[in-house]
Amino acid sequence: MNAFRGRYEHQMDEKGRVSLPSAFRRGDGADRFFLLQWEAPYLTLFPETKWAEVEGRLLEYRKGGREAMNQVRVIFSGLVEVSPDKQGRILIPSHLQSAAALSGSVLLLGVSDRVELWDPATYERSVSEQAGDFTQFAHKLFG
């Protein structure tokens, strides 16, 4: 499986296309992705192989009753399949642009098994400023 790492900022064009970094287009499943907003305020881009795992869990979860089925419907109704074009761009549909307040610059974060797409200012407010003091647990993580 392709591991997504790093932080890239690219401009979204007037048609809603944004360049997927070449590092994110390498490896298995790099030609088909699934894009959705499962948690506000950002979008998540899953490679096909990872999405297959998530979809399996969703199909099992929907057996939990009417509420679970409706939650799965909501997730699937916002899901789109995207593939990079010859220039490596993916199209972000307008409903997902609006949901994540994307316009102009888009921050693409590699988060191991997926890519997150953020409005840069929202990312700074939501994540960077609220991450806490990293030094408190850095030695536990890095040895």
Report on the structure:
The chain is of the alpha+beta class and 143 residues long. The protein has one domain (4-142): Chemotaxis protein chec, CATH 3.40.1550.20. Helix content is 36%, strand content 27%. The chain is built from six helices and eight strands; from the N terminus they run ββαββααββαββαα. It is globular, with a radius of gyration of 16 Å. 20% of the residues are buried. The model has no long low-confidence stretch (mean pLDDT 91).
Instruction: Look at the helices and sheets and give the structural class.
Output: alpha+beta
What integer is the average pLDDT?
91
Helical fraction equals 25-40%
- Spatial separation of the terminal alpha carbons: 26 Å
Strand order of the largest sheet: 1-7-8-4-3-5
Biggest sheet architecture: 6 strands, antiparallel
Strand content: 25-35%
CATH class wording:
Alpha Beta
Fill in the CATH topology: Chemotaxis protein chec
Number of helices: 6
How many β-strands, per DSSP?
Answer: 8
Uncertain regions spanning at least 5 consecutive residues: none
Shape: globular
Integer tally of domains: 1
The CATH architecture classification is 3-Layer(aba) Sandwich
> CATH superfamily membership, which one?
Transcriptional regulator MraZ domain
> Nearest-angstrom radius of gyration?
16 Å
List SSEs in N-to-C order. EEHEEHHEEHEEHH
